[in-house]
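Field: sequence (string)
Field: structure_tokens (string)

Example rows 1 and 2, in order.
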Amino acid sequence: MVENVILVDEQDNEVGFMEKIEAHEKALLHRAFSVFVFNDNNELMLQQRAKSKYHSPLLWTNTCCSHQRKGESNISAGKRRLQEEMGFTCELEEVFSFIYKAPFDNGLTEHELDHVMIGKYNGEPVVNPEEVESYKWMKLEAVKNDIENNPDAYTAWFKIIFEKSYEKIANFNF
């Protein structure tokens, strides 16, 4: 199935649609989302991307992330992707959005207006092995320290989100 992304301007207005790989090859700004799921112990569920992913394979990142589909709200997209990747869903709240650009060694570039959502879940996921290699729960301070000590183990966007918004994520009240 061909997956399209929603091209946007810097104010998040739709300006068109394009096949996902082409948008990444041309480094065009498009809408995306990142979901951060916490448990009652204030631990963040991290996922390790599957070995078969076309970029950033086996790197650790937030609970899930992807692209909205035409006509899909940010929250609906986040819940859909949580189910597809991690095998569960939960209530989500959008906290903020930001624009970033991150080139990869394979010639592709993520240039996204990323909507960051936070949710709470206390169960264990049933991961989709085509998307996720592994998962773990970690305290935010431990994640922050590990990013500093092992930056190559994490995705580019996850490190950017952490740098730009650690306080917003750490102080979020459910």
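Row 2 begins here:
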Amino acid sequence: MTAVMIPPVRPGPWRRCFRWIKRIFIAVLLLVLTALLSGFICQQVASRIGDRRFPPPGRMVDVGGHRLHILRLGRGSPAVVFDSPMGASHLAWSLVQPRVAAFTEACAYDRAGSGWSEPGLGPRTSSKAAEELHALLKNAGVKPPYILVGSSIGGLNVRLYAFRFPGEVAGLVLVDPAHEEQSVRLPPSAQLDPSFIRMLRLARLGSRLGLLRLLNMPLGEASSPLLPAELRPMARAAGFRSSWVDALYREAIAIEASFAEARSARRALNERPLGDIPLVVLTRSEAETAAPHERRAWRIWRELHLEIARESGRGEQETVPGSGHFIQADRPEAVIQAIRKLVAAGAGS
């Protein structure tokens, strides 16, 4: 019997093409995974190097499950306590705190997750910030009463602190503070842009994979020219930390909840929820080149600040010429003067 040889079946051109596409896809996928893993490792290594190069300038204090960073300068009473804008650390007060420390104790701290503080559990609302600040000051041994100074969302935080712990507050200086009605009364052009939240979501992933470092895009105060040049490397090292990006995102998505907390706390008190606590509200000036809709937004902003000033029988509002939202950077002397006035007048007496 003669054997019959069957020739091998060669794959058709489409099958060969599919095999090459599959190989290319696997190769690209492996390259992408390698790049992501490399970025993650580089982020971890670079963060540790930054932590060693720029350790906490102050002291880490336990507030119940995590530690917050506080920097105390000077001596005297009442102690002045600074709370920063969203996305900023205690460095936001670098032009103010040392000069205040010349005449009384000056304490600046980092909210949970920002700066050098450890992340905290739960939503990052103003109420939570006030509770943790209360625990921080107690555990750090800073004696009340305090003059609380808050900028932007920090102003809302310390106002809530005064609502809840009025006996511990000797005075308030609110630096262009956020107001719980701003999302209702300000025009849409002056509201928090929803695209900002979407950007932060992407930034959270990008920070973990080292993309923010690769693109040289630190978040928070490190991305602005408001800090003195000698502090910018320190701010950049902190601004690349994933924990800081997370903290900024968690505070931003909780902003409406913070406004609701302030409304509820204010309604629970009388017509003057701050009683006779000495209060100075500093408002940024109106830009000379502002468009008509920006001028209208500024007038509403100033009216909101006048309403805050009326919450105390000893409240006053002042517009600071030549200043933007960050008055402590544009006109630090205005903030220092307001603090000095409360200290010299024996705030709380």
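free_text_note (row 2): The chain has a mean pLDDT of 85.
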